[in-house]
Amino acid sequence: MSDTSQIALIRKLYAAMGDVNSFKSLLADDVEYDIAEGFPNGGVYRGLDTTVSDFFPFLADFNEFYARGDEYFESGDHVIVLGHYFGVSKIGRKVKSRFAHFWTIRDGKVVRLQQTGDTLLIAQALGK
Predict the structure, then answer these.
(1) Cα 28 vs. chain centroid, distance in angstroms?
(2) Is the C or the N end of the chain the one with fewer CB within 10 Å?
(3) What is the pLDDT of residues 28-77, one digit of tens each?
(4) On the CB side of 63, how many CA atoms lie within 13 Å of its CA?
(5) CA 3 to chain centre
(6) Contacts by 105-109 with C-beta closer than 8 Å and gap 24+?
(7) Who's near 75: CB < 8 A, 6+ residues apart?
């Protein structure tokens, strides 16, 4: 069975492997990122420019960091993804941490992400 257009869109986000410019092309101008407290730069970000300038800088603490979806579920204008973060911090620590992402899509763009993840493992990889 082939992916729906909404699941295909979310797969493109994960395929970007942390490339912020690729993310930007898939996010709406009024996007909202709701990131779990305890995750690097956790909090709520509204608007594409704010999300890019205030949330994504945490990537600089890693030599490599990306998300890979394992299971995808669609309901209406939502895509739910269960998966894992993978990374190597600047201090050389590897991390593999579970996440759940709840994406909302409108007019072929992501308008909202509600994220939760295993923040302890990521903090440990960062030496915190």
Answers:
(1) 15
(2) N
(3) 999 999 999 999 999 999 999 999 999 999 999 999 999 999 999 999 99
(4) 9
(5) 19
(6) 105/6, 105/9, 105/10, 105/77, 105/78, 105/79, 106/28, 106/77, 107/28, 108/5, 108/9, 109/9, 109/26, 109/27, 109/28, 109/31
(7) none
Tokens of 38: 């305890």
Residue count (the chain):
128
CA atoms within 13 A on the CB side of 42: 13
The phi, psi pair for 125, rounded to 5°, reads: -65, -30
Closest listed residue to residue 36, CA positions, set 123, 127, 125, 104: 123
Beta bridge partners of 66: 86
Please indicate, yes or no, whether the overall pTM of this predicted structure exceeds 0.85.
yes
